[in-house]
């Protein structure tokens, strides 16, 4: 965390960004080198039998977005290539099939993949669904009930928008000494740094941070109200996904970070979202994906209510595959964040 006067956070941020770029550069170098000598492909083909889940958010051009660009997983063209790779190397299943498979209690002897989407952005319907249909693949779409049929701008998109609009200014995080320079040259990286700190904060709820930003950047906030647009699917589109053979899962009611909520609040988010989706879409839900899904974003209380609600599968967003599954409510997923599929292969093979 950054502290002190304006000069300190600048230096800290600079050090952080240097480390960030170094790690990204090192990864890029390794991916490039291993791709060139065929190392990634070799390992990829030899991955063991098990459960592999690949999680997407938005599909499309990140650079065109006025909101959170880091939420884009890949372009539409890249998504098609990913599907070809996945189809050629895995048996693609949904969570109902996964539950059946695990209930048999036998050793997994194939490589199974689940393709999942979090949040229910409209591009999941317009860009991803046609390709999934074309390649006859199924996917699981985790929807946030408050977002469906609404003009909600979720907190990460609003935070990114406000910070980008306020480029060139400083942001002091709530009542803390953490100060960030919103450098227009590196604004996407600065936004991601702030976003990570917000998600990890145990002192402030997301809503408090959003309120704080609205107060500190009132002009940007007013502009956002004029630019509001429907970012998410409506109920009809969600129903169409389901009728096209896709599975619908819960991503809670309001996408708050579960570990920052009381037990009662978690119960409502987890149980009511299932009831609402089942009622509105006339279907039975089998699985939930915890919002944000990093290990610090959910806890034992979340798992308790997921079981109590009647889900059979719970996904996080921690990278890793399962050669056998010990905990059905703590399944890992690889987060797709690059057009080049070799990055995903690298993650599967080496992390
Ligand atoms: Zn999400």
Question: Topology, pairings included?
Answer:
Layout (H helix, E strand, L loop, with lengths): L6 H30 L2 H7 L4 E7 L1 E2 L12 E3 L1 H14 L1 E2 L2 H9 L7 E9 L2 H13 L5 E4 L11 H11 L4 E3 L6 E3 L5 H14 L5 H11 L1 H9 L8 H9 L3 E4 L12 H19 L5 E3 L10 H10 L3 E3 L18 E2 L5 H10 L1
Parallel strand pairs: 1-5, 1-12, 2-3, 4-5, 5-6, 6-9, 10-11
Antiparallel strand pairs: 7-8
Helix pairs in contact: 2-13, 3-5, 6-7, 6-8, 11-12
Write structural notes for this entry:
With 351 residues, this protein is α/β, with parallel strands linked by helices. The protein folds into 2 domains: 7-26 and 154-226, no CATH class; 38-151 and 229-350, TIM Barrel. It is 47% helix and 13% strand. It contains 13 helices and 12 strands. The chain has helices at 7-36, 39-45, 76-89, 95-103, 122-134, 155-165, 187-200, 206-216, 218-226, 235-243, 263-281, 300-309, 341-350, and strands at 50-56, 58-59, 72-74, 91-92, 111-119, 140-143, 170-172, 179-181, 247-250, 287-289, 313-315, 334-335. It is globular. The structure holds zinc ion. Zinc ion is lined by residues 118-119, 251, 255, 291.
């Amino acid at each position: 965390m950054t502290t002190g006067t304006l000069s300190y956070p600048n230096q800290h941020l600079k050090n952080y960004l240097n480390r960030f770029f170094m790690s990204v550069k090192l990864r890029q170098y390794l991916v490039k080198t291993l791709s060139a000598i065929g190392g990634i492909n070799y390992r990829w083909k030899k991955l063991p039998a098990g459960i592999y889940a690949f999680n997407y958010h938005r599909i499309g051009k990140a650079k065109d977005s006025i909101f959170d660009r880091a939420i884009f997983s890949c372009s539409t063209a890249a998504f098609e290539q990913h599907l070809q790779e996945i189809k050629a190397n895995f048996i693609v299943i949904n969570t109902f099939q996964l539950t059946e498979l695990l209930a048999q209690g036998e050793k997994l002897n194939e490589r199974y993949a689940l393709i999942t989407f979090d949040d229910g952005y409209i591009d999941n319907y317009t860009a991803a669904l046609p390709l999934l249909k074309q390649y006859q693949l199924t996917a699981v779409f985790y929807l946030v009930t408050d977002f469906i049929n609404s003009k909600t701008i979720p907190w990460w998109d609003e935070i990114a928008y406000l910070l980008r609009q306020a480029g060139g200014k400083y942001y002091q995080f709530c009542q803390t000494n953490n100060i960030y320079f919103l450098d227009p040259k590196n604004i996407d990286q600065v936004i991601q740094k702030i976003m990570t700190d917000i998600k990890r904060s145990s002192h402030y709820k997301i809503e408090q941070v959003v309120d704080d930003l609205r107060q500190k950047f009132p002009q940007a906030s007013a502009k956002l109200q004029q630019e509001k647009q429907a970012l998410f699917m409506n109920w009809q589109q969600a129903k169409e996904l389901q009728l096209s053979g896709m599975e619908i899962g819960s991503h809670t009611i309001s996408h708050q970070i579960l570990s920052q909520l009381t037990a009662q609040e978690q119960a409502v988010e987890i149980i009511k979202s299932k009831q609402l989706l089942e009622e509105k879409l006339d279907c039975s839900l089998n699985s939930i994906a915890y919002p944000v899904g990093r290990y610090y974003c959910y806890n034992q209380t979340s798992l308790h209510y997921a079981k109590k609600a009647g889900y059979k599968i719970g996904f996080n967003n921690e990278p890793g595959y399962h050669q056998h599954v010990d905990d059905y409510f703590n399944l890992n997923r690889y987060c797709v964040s690059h057009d080049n599929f070799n990055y995903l292969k690298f993650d599967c093979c080496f992390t």
